[in-house]
Amino acid sequence: MKKPSIVASVLAAGLAGFMTTARAGDMNKNMAKLEFFKIDAAAFDMGKVDYPGGKSMNLSAGIGSGAFHLKSDPDDIIYTVSDRGPNVDCKKAKKMTGWDHEKMCGGNKASKIFPVPSFTPTIYKLRIAGDSLELLEKITLKDSAGKAITGLSNPLKGAKTEGAFGHDGKNLGFDPNGVDTEGLVKLSDGTFWLCDEYGPSILHVGADGRVIERLVPAGLEGDYAGATYPVRGTLPAILKKRKLNRGIESIAVSPDEKFLYFAMQSPLAHPDDKAYKKSANVRIFKFDRLAKKTVGEWVYVMDKPDTFKADNKKKKRKQSDVKVSEMVAVGMDRLIVLERINKVTKFYTIDLGQGTNIHAKQWDDPAAKPALAQIKSDKLAEAGIIPVGKSLYFNTEGHKGVPEKIEGIALMGQGKLMLINDNDFGIAGDSTQILRLTTQKSW
To answer: Is-above-0.90 flag for pTM?
Structure first.
């Protein structure tokens, strides 16, 4: 079959999808090929939820919050992970459920509706088979006793949290075991490390899905007193200042598996939300996995929102709309970082060795002034900080068929990246879409 010279076709609606091969134009002088894959819709169907307010929604599992390929695994195997499960902002209650927030959320617009509160965050093992991906295994997360955990909000006092309400408007309370998983890596011993937005936290998880331990910001561990798995406060305390729902969004592992890298989705809300909204300074951390301590911290400066052109067509975007949603290690201290709004996703290569390690400096002290988020990105050097340099690897702008909200990257080698979007459990009718990006670049 002759390959077209431009991106071939728009990705078909629905999980059924189709496969197409296409040239994607100039990408840092490397030509790129995009291939789209089908997945089995039935394997991820969660059924229909009816709300007392008269509305309903058909749900499908969101499997694309993160992705990973273990180099020693067969070339056709990838792992992905869900987030906390289907949820609806209470401020959108009327539109989505038929009841307003007074009935659905006890009058609290800042809470969440969980239409399937029993949903368990899950790791998915997938196999590439021709133009399709097959589901091989579901690994649900469990506590130390093997009981399934939920994605419900944590009872935090040292950091902001949000209430949880069911599809019938009943208050679900808090769950100290609950996680909002957003990324994963698999180690050669069969265990996983996941990152979570709630605490924020990182979790070591057994091959069977049991949480071995959860690491949270120092001083926050007491808020998890009721958890039925070990929780330790070993992460930098400053991370408690994360903006709600903008916690640790991405995680990667060094080639020798000695170190984990993780990044915040957004700048910290420190000293306040005003600083978070205007800042582009995102923190990336290096964590010694065996010593269980942070050994490095760098500043990554996100792009200005107006450079995501397709996302600005209907309304002008703000700096806080830009997010870091995924990372993958391509060498020791070398990473690909996924930066996005919704319609446009950019992939940057970075080398941490080219930036200033600010770990354990004044920027980790909540009392220090000014805070990192208050320093303009073009003034970082004056504050003694060289942010990590970034080189554009690929930009989805203008490439038809590329899905919105790409959140997962699996490095397949030989210049191949498997990409997957987060469909938000189909609440707004979005489908899971998986594609492979092949370039002339290899690592």
So the answer is: yes
